[in-house]
Amino acid sequence: MTSKGSQEEYDYLYKIVLIGDSGVGKSNLLSRFTRNEFSLETKSTIGVEFATRTIQTEGKTIKAQIYYYYQQQQQQQQQQQQQQQQQQQQQQQQQQQQQQQQQQQQQQQQQQQQQQQQQQQQQQQRHEQRKQDYYRGAVGALLVYDIAKQATYKSVERWILELRENADRNIEIMLVGNKSDLRHLREVSTDEAKEFSEKHKLTFIETSALDSSNVELAFQNILTQIYHIMSRPSHSTGPQTTIDSNTETIILPTPTDPPAAKSGCC
């Protein structure tokens, strides 16, 4: 598929998503690959950032659109749900301790509980819609964990399940152990992650967005793998076309495409 009438031409356009727990370095992997930049600042805006970069593979021009979803919103929702559950438990304890509460107070509490349940359901529905929008059209995923934080590695199976539930069943997945520069603080061994990847039929690599180790190789490898799959005879049509823009932030949900911008970094 060749872009026509745009500021740059390409043969294939692939959407890649970055997933994993907060703090594992997804944003810096994105900025390191597309702009060769690294920042110690964390993202506070809620939404989706994406950037583009064009590479050459086996004589073909491949344009990658790489998406990174800020997880703060999901965590805030989980915290709100936990707080609401704690409030409900406290209310129930108060009801047990205060058997002589008036009927009016009980009715008010029931109404509050119903409202809280409705809010939780609405939040969950919005979150599910955001997940579907995020994964739609993605042909590749980098599942990132922090080699110095075992908890982020333990979350990998949950992220795989989310991928299986929301993304295309044939999506190419690469497990990425980021922050390899923190080898002196390592909590996840390379052999353990390799064994896990083989078991779940994932590709695997360790990277460091800080010193740029293997970042280029990780993206090059997954894009080449996707190209080999998508160029097979069974994939006669081109890849899903996504938004064409340079680095940009989108506040979800956003049903319309952003305006076209200058071509991505090379």
TrEMBL record:
<dbReference type="InterPro" id="IPR027417">
    <property type="entry name" value="P-loop_NTPase"/>
</dbReference>
<keyword id="KW-0342">GTP-binding</keyword>
<protein>
    <submittedName>
        <fullName>Uncharacterized protein</fullName>
    </submittedName>
</protein>
<dbReference type="InterPro" id="IPR005225">
    <property type="entry name" value="Small_GTP-bd"/>
</dbReference>
<comment type="similarity">
    <text>Belongs to the small GTPase superfamily. Rab family.</text>
</comment>
<dbReference type="Pfam" id="PF00071">
    <property type="entry name" value="Ras"/>
</dbReference>
<feature type="coiled-coil region">
    <location>
        <begin position="70"/>
        <end position="132"/>
    </location>
</feature>
<keyword id="KW-0175">Coiled coil</keyword>
<dbReference type="InterPro" id="IPR001806">
    <property type="entry name" value="Small_GTPase"/>
</dbReference>
<dbReference type="InterPro" id="IPR050209">
    <property type="entry name" value="Rab_GTPases_membrane_traffic"/>
</dbReference>
<dbReference type="GO" id="GO:0003924">
    <property type="term" value="F:GTPase activity"/>
</dbReference>
<dbReference type="GO" id="GO:0005525">
    <property type="term" value="F:GTP binding"/>
</dbReference>
<keyword id="KW-0547">Nucleotide-binding</keyword>
